[in-house]
User: Which sequence fits this backbone?
């Protein structure tokens, strides 16, 4: 059994996270429950910041809040001196409501609306990562109306695509995001951005993928970005002061996943920046990264209660829990794999092979195929590890299932950071038009 962060098995044979017995959490907050190991989130943040500090480069570590965007998480990010990426008005609003400093917020997205851009201008965010020409001009116009000059990075597709283990280097990358480097649109974007009076071009951004276990892709991306920066300097006399290499740093979900220590990613990126820019006689730019998954992923655990089971002799035993694809759609979406334990009997020998089903009306609603567990009974607790990223963030109300609560645990203390949805929450936005109401039908 692989235990992350402060997780351990206590003397009662119970899983304990942040010094809190998860059986107590289940009793107090109910299940399903997302549990976040606060110390581990802080540790991850510090690993990034400390590693960058040692490189001597100027940097920003921007937490990609799409991985898990709630107010308490924004407060943690602020306390750990991170910047913050947002991709919608909802994520921006969450950050602002949490008191996150606007000047450390970066706005991403391939289709920012006028409303969203105006909101971001009004709160005074630090940087827009511009994705396309329509946005470039809309942003300039909207900034002009507010007499503003805004910082921008241009998102470029460098033609490096990472698939965890292999990298595809393509001339023309087929992606909905960004300005293509190979076909000249990135260059054209620099030309236009530099001519727009209400934009201040800081540099470029690239993001090559997710759940990456090696440094080679980042090196390749830095190399392509440097070549581009040098060409732009030589042809246009424009200098970049910021290079953002995105996120995508991998984490260990299951045995066989082999992420590198955070410092190794950071050092590889910093070394590539230093050597490439030095070779081109170009001042070292400030370097920004955007970790999402690796900031919160392994700090999250989802606690469920075991309900029913169905044994098909010779075929499979299904064990159903009180959540499923509504709180964790990743297995259904990406065939993602997870490890889990029977949290209230974690010392017992695993004697059965079971598959963990959710409670949704959907055969695809499976959380884990083929998991070895002690023989589980109704009422036992199942803890699924590594659910901190893209779980609560992707949770839905399918089947009108209520989204779970989220608690932060640390040093023996558990604090609610998101309440469990109520049944009233489920219907609170529903409207019955008057013409459908009984009184008007009777007329
Ligand atoms: C999703 C995303 C990230 C974060 O990716 P992780 O794999 O969670 O680290 C960072 N930057 C951009 C532009 C993204 O789209």
Assistant:
């Amino acid at each position: 059994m692989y235990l992350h962060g402060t997780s351990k098995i206590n003397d009662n044979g119970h899983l304990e996270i942040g010094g809190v017995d998860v059986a107590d959490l289940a009793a107090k907050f109910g299940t399903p429950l997302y549990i976040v190991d606060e110390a581990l989130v802080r540790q991850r943040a510090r690993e990034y910041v400390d590693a960058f500090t040692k490189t001597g480069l100027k940097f920003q570590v921007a937490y990609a809040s799409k991985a898990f965007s709630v107010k308490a998480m924004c407060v943690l990010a602020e306390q750990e001196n991170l910047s913050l990426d947002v991709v919608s008005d909802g994520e921006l609003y969450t950050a602002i409501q949490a008191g996150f400093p606007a000047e450390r917020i970066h706005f991403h997205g391939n289709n920012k609306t006028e409303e969203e851009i105006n909101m971001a201008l009004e709160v005074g965010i630090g940087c827009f990562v511009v994705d396309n020409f329509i946005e470039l001009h809309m942003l300039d116009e909207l900034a002009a109306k507010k007499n503003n000059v805004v910082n921008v990075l241009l998102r470029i597709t460098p033609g490096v695509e990472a698939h965890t283990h292999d990298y595809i280097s393509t001339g023309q990358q087929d992606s909905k995001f960004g300005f293509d480097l190979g076909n000249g649109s990135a260059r054209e974007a620099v030309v236009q951005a530099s001519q727009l009076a209400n934009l201040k071009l800081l540099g470029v951004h690239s993001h090559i993928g997710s759940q990456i276990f090696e440094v080679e892709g980042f090196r390749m991306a830095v190399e392509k970005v440097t070549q581009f920066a040098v060409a732009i300097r030589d042809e246009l006399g424009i200098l970049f002061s910021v290079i953002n290499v995105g996120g995508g740093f991998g984490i260990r979900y299951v045995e066989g996943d082999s992420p590198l220590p955070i410092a190794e990613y950071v050092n590889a990126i910093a070394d590539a920046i230093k050597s490439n820019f030095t070779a081109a006689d170009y001042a070292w730019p400030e370097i920004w990264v955007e970790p999402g998954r690796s900031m919160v992923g392994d700090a999250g655990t989802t606690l469920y209660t075991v309900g029913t089971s169905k044994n098909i002799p010779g075929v499979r035993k299904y064990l159903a829990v009180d959540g499923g694809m509504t709180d964790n759609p990743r297995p259904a979406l990406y065939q993602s794999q997870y490890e889990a334990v029977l949290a209230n009997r974690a010392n017992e020998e695993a004697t059965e092979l079971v598959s963990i089903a959710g409670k949704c009306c959907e055969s695809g609603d499976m959380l884990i195929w083929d998991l070895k567990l002690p023989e589980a009974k109704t009422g036992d607790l199942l803890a699924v590890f590594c659910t901190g990223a893209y779980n609560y963030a992707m949770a839905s109300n399918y089947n009108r299932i209520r989204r779970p609560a989220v608690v932060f645990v640390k040093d023996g203390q558990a604090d609610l950071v998101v309440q469990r949805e109520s049944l009233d929450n489920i219907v609170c936005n529903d409207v019955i038009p008057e013409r459908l109401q009984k009184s008007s039908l009777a007329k």
Remarks:
- The radius of gyration is 24 Å.
- Residues 108-291 form a domain with the TIM Barrel fold (CATH 3.20.20.10).
- DSSP finds 13 helices and 23 strands in the chain.
